Amino acid sequence: MRQIYLDHNATTPVDDAVLEAMLPNFRETFGNPSSVHALGRAARVCLDLAREQVAALIGAHPAEITFTSGGTESDNLAITGTARALKNKGNRIITSRVEHPAVLNTCEELRKEGFVIDYVPVDGYGRIDCAALADMITDETLLISLQHGNSEVGTLQPIEQIGALARDRGVLFHTDAVQTVGKIEVDTQSLPVDLLSLSAHKMYGPKGVGALYIRRGTLPLVPLLSGGGQEKKRRGGTENVPGIVGLGKAAEIARSRLESDRSHVLLLRNDLRRQIESRIPGAKFYGHPDFYLPNTLYLGFEGVDGQTLMIHLDLAGIFVSTGTACSSGSILPSEVLGAMRVPEQEMTRTIRVSLGRGNHPEEVERVVGALEKAVLEIRSKTGFSAEPTPK
Ligand SMILES: Cc1ncc(COP(=O)(O)O)c(C=O)c1O
After folding, report:
1. Is the four-CA dihedral 203, 206, 207, 213 of positive or negative sign?
2. Is ligand 1 within 6 A of the CB of residue 80?
3. Which fold has domain 4-11+258-382?
């Protein structure tokens, strides 16, 4: 049975060319980039190239890229680093309840240190209310941290407006762009963002490596890791050279195929949605109808438990997720759906389908067939019967 992987928002397979690029850094160019001999200098050249590749993907200058251990660390460094650097200016941070736990829990830790966290409300699609945000900013606000794309429901935030508002009010703006970099255009030259997080494993690179974009001129963040002064003293510790090289190569590939990847997954997503709507009654889709990640469908079926549906699909060799990948294993209701005020009985129905480069148009038919079969089976066990979807 050929497996169909539909969980690309959780992680992606490493591209062959990425792996090829990384291998010499384990064997030949294994030097420490801080060493001054030839092997160290060769590793430094690899880091410099990767920095240029990542910068090019997001329209940044290489000096604006700090390598980290992934999206989580980038979020931590952006938020905690800014809060500690600006603690004499103010003590308030604005974020939202639809953020990734890497942002939510970092803010929660800062709350214990005395910072005040203000949560801007979202609408029923999970999109930020900009008018409420404008009212929330005070002289004490030192940072706004709001995501670019939501990993669960796929809703995109109006980060142009948020950033413009932040600039106008003289507040720094961080965006977690882990789910958007490599999927849609993210250009720091046109976007008014000061800090931006990205992660390699969401764009066919290795796990455990990412970057934080820090706009030139932004105040020096207080580092989370003190050490040997690497990354311009922003992040101590010998650099993960193979991982960083993989991130760089993944960024280069993502840049060259951004539009073809985007239109490929969008076509599959829309086809999948159309076929589900026409063949399976009682389907409901979540997330914004106009502003969404091109690869993501978040949905549920009346009378069908999402975990049970996921297991049925798993047995058919089709891999989707329920809730965020980081919290799967626990079946706590999604914070994101709660913030969107999705009724409680619907929360446990949802699954996330996130497509990628490697999915094929022929797979859509098999996925819809498997969904139809699973939904029917689950409903027949509970005696539920759905009204046909009106044409
Ligand atoms: C929006 C978002 N931010 C941050 C992260 C964490 O990134 P990493 O797994 O690289 O630590 C993820 C991963 O799921 C994510 O989706």
Report:
1. negative
2. no
3. Aspartate Aminotransferase, domain 1 (3.90.1150)
Among 67, 96, 97, 151, name the best residue to mutate to test ligand 1's pocket (greatest count of ligand atoms within 8 A of Cβ): 151
16-256 and 4-11+258-382 share a CATH fold? no
What's the CA-to-centroid distance between 269 and ligand 1, angstroms?
Answer: 22
Alpha carbons 85 and 89: distance in angstroms, whole number? 9
Class for domain 16-256, per CATH? Answer: alpha beta
H or E stretch at 287: none
Is the pTM for the entire model greater than 0.85? yes
Beta bridge partners of 7: 354
Does 46 qualify as catalytic in the annotation?
A: no
How close is the Cα of 178 to the center of ligand 1, in Å? Answer: 6
Per domain, the residue ranges of the chain are: 4-11+258-382, 16-256
Q: What does the pLDDT profile of the chain (391 residues) look like in tens digits?
A: 899 999 999 999 999 999 999 999 999 999 999 999 999 999 999 999 999 999 999 999 999 999 999 999 999 999 999 999 999 999 999 999 999 999 999 999 999 999 999 999 999 999 999 999 999 999 999 999 999 999 999 999 999 999 999 999 999 999 999 999 999 999 999 999 999 999 999 999 999 999 999 999 998 999 999 999 999 999 999 999 999 999 999 999 999 999 999 999 999 999 999 999 999 999 999 999 999 999 999 999 999 999 999 999 999 999 999 964 444 555 677 889 999 999 988 999 999 999 999 999 999 999 999 999 999 999 999 888 877 655 5
Q: Are 351 and 299 in contact (CB under 8 A)?
A: yes
Q: Is 149 in the pocket of ligand 1 (CB under 6 A)?
A: no
Is residue 348 in contact with ligand 1, taking CB distance under 6 Å? Answer: no
Please give the distance, rounded to the nearest whole angstrom, from the Cα atom of residue 273 to the centre of ligand 1. 26
* DSSP H helical ranges for the chain: 16-22, 24-27, 38-57, 71-85, 101-112, 130-136, 159-168, 241-256, 258-279, 306-315, 335-339, 344-347, 361-382
Residue 278, number of CB atoms within 10 A of its CB: 12
The verdict on the CB of residue 8 being under 6 Å from ligand 1 is: no
